[in-house]
Amino acid sequence: xxxxxxxxxPFDLVVFGGxxxxxxxxxxxxxxxxxxxxxxxxxxxxxxxxxxxxxxxGFRDLARAAIMEFVAEDKRDPExxxxxxxxxxxxxxxxxxxxxxxxxxxxxxxxxxQAFYFSVAPSLFGDLAQRLHDHKIADAxxxxxxxxxxxxxxxxxxxxxxxxxKHFNEAQIYRIDHYLGKETVQNLMAVRFANIxxxxxxxxxxxxxxxxxxxxxxxxxxxxxxxDKSGAMRDMVQNHxxxxxxxxxxxxxxxxxxxxxxxxxxxxxxxxxxxxxxxxVRGQYLAGNGQGGYLEHAEDAASKTESYIAMKVHxxxxxxxxxxxxxxxxxxLRARASEIAITFREPPHSIFDDAEGWxxxxxxxxxxPNEGMNLMVMIKEPGPGGMRLTQVPLDMSFAxxxxxxxxxxxxxxxxxxxxxxxxxxxxxxxxxxxxAAWAWTDPIIQGWEKRGDKPKxxxxxxxxxxxALMLMHRDGRRWREIRE
Length: 484
Ligand code: BG6
Known about the structure:
Largest sheet: 9 strands, mixed
Radius of gyration: 24 Å
Structural class: alpha/beta
Strand content: 15-25%
Bound molecules: 6-O-phosphono-beta-D-glucopyranose
Number of helices: 16
Helix content: 25-40%
């Protein structure tokens, strides 16, 4: 199988915050990889814009270092790197003042696709939008790209949306949730809507429950100042986990089209029930394995912010009434493993006597690592000993099934930035989606704050707090083991 690379139109992409961490780790290396793959036309320009005084050559040096650090060796072709760097420029800019804007205006061409990536603190979104407008740099065809955190509650998200809406319409705004750029996350839609096999069973009549797990081994060391003001709920659940939940639960859109898909996701978010305090477990990792605990990594040594959360969520609509969705995510857990597991119900009647051997069918979609699918099915245990049943996996690794193409999956940012240039918003969050997600999240967080709830400690390298096990046990269910 040969993957098709269709070049995008020539573009000018301005990266505000171009010298920052995200730019160095993801944006510049991602753009280079797309250039290497032949997707970026040679007459495109990437302009870094940030506060530091620097010239084009300085920015190219920074980009070269980022490529050497974050691009795999087999793609680091010196000629390619130099050709890519020749497309780079830099303008020192004052986001809140006038410095640099006239220069930027000179650099950005009018006859190519224009995109402005706001890789900066959200408090600057409004300022940048205003100046792009005032200096007549952006026009009705320009696109702007913003990153999370998109607000920290409904009110602040509304203010950010309003700040952008002053000068840009919704069709110009690309709100990134990098989970939507992950190949396997997009695969959720392919699996559901390109196969007849699953859809007839995709409802509470046949599905007992769904588990969505995003487990990480990393701590928050080094980003405690940001994380402590967010916690797992704001950092992961309100956005990434919510998107996964939507893709699993939504109705089939009439077409794979931005608003058709986003309309269906929005309906899921709006159908989410409020979550009672008893259906949520929050945790904080403790010191262990020679590393500090959450309270040492956070800014506030008495912090009540959670680095782990497990919760039971209900969707009140015809399809899902009666099927709980269990979500869990956390830092410093025993393995880095993200998956969605759909557990089906028992057959209505068993013709076999071997009740003991029977297990539910489970469809597991592994998001990372070892991307793939696994369907647990019942078969006869081999041998002459009567009709005994046993469960076996129909296991597929995407990398194995797809050969070379499967092994070389582009990073989420590569896909998303190319979608911005193509003008395709399907994998970006719409303003109303983000607001609906905060409207559901806000009362949960307010409840913790009002009650002064403290997260439970959990051992570093474990599966999370004991109480999370109880959340499942009391429903007669079990979490799947967290493992790579
Ligand atoms: C980010 C969160 O959005 O996603 C991080 O801020 C988290 O806390 C990261 O570690 C997880 O992304 P990925 O792609 O590594 O699963």
